[in-house]
Amino acid sequence: MSPETDRADIAIVGAGAAGLMAAIWAGRRASELGRPLRIVALDGARTLGAKILVAGGGRCNVTHHAVTPDAYAGSSRNAIKKVLRRFDVPETVTFFRELGVKLKREDTGKLFPTTDSARTVLNALLGAVRDAGAQVRHPRRVESIRAHEPGDADGDGYTIGGAWGELHARRLILATGGMALPRSGSDGKGYAFVRELGHTVTPHVFPALVPLVVQDGHFIRELSGVTLPARVELRSGTGKRLLSFTNSTLCTHFGLSGPSVMDLSRYWTAARHDDPGAHVVIAWLPDAEPETLDRALQSLGQRGVVRWLSEQLPARLAEALAHEAGVEAQTIGHALTREQRKNLVQFLTACPVPLAGDRGFTHAETTAGGVPLAEIDLATMTSRVRPDLHLCGELCDVDGRIGGFNFQWAWASGYIAGRSAAEA
After folding, report:
1. How far apart are CA 113 and CA 59, in angstroms?
2. What's 4-206+368-423's CATH class?
3. What is the pTM for the complete model shown?
4. Does the pLDDT value for residue 1 go beyond 50?
5. Which CATH code fits 212-358?
6. For the chain, which residues make up each domain, given as ranges?
7. What is the pLDDT of residues 237-248, one digit of tens each?
């Protein structure tokens, strides 16, 4: 393919959730204003929307029924709130319904398409881009972005380049994503672009919503496949409780996964940047108090300890916890020593988990860190450094919990960026 040279009024780099949303609303707003703008979105992936297609186990968890700033980390929650309220959950539901995608709420609060197919969501978005008069071109990997200087022969704006050629655009929306799931095209290139254009990026950029690796030899790694509701708790090096998440928890051959662990992961990594002693403990019986468990163990009498535990926990986990506490498999209640009871209660309510790290960006659902929202005019998602530049999506220093929160950020920030780019 010979290199091409083209022009656009608005160029969008990245055609994931935020980029597609920006393209749709830039086109719609241009039509409302009677402005015939040329809008081109570029994406380096051969298959568009990879993150959309794999989200929610291939069903695409479009959003959550109760999205609040408390579900997010990174930049200040007040700043995040300013963006989320511009395009909230009811507007998201209406938007997709008008595209022919009806959403259903599940017991977890997550909203999925009634088709249970992520392809439904992606096809609807791509159709809306076409209907809005915008174009998506792929694979068009962007390798360089040059901001035009006053008096530049190419006029105002930017030259976006790659092996495919160049695109000159008067206004630019960066929706490149972060570094999570790199096979989708999110390789962190966007951070280099924003730095070159005068922005900063947080000192730490790291995986979020990612499974955690437990040290080799720990009993958890022998329990692969065991899943149960548990409370996963982050504590400081001094033992102070910092935060916790109670949800489904999965033991794996490498360590821990499941919603509780993935929600906690970014906070564990962030805490260790300032406190190397920060650590994680698990309450395998999240609703039980230590004193209550101790009394229950004292009253077992002739009942077997492991058998009693297996009535409340998966049998393999019950046996492993008893073994770690120094309790033989056939031990009956009245034979327990005070030390054994103390150990067992400790393992049931605050089991120490020696973590070795996480599974990295390859297995992460989103990225923590990015461009601070303080560098963006949140009313328009316009750069405070360059007035003809907009930023949205995962590139920003915003990451949400598991359950559709990151998609809601993408829809809201992309909506604002697209509309304001067309208005400008």
Report:
1. 7
2. alpha beta
3. 0.95
4. no
5. 1.10.8.50
6. 4-206+368-423, 212-358
7. 999 999 999 999
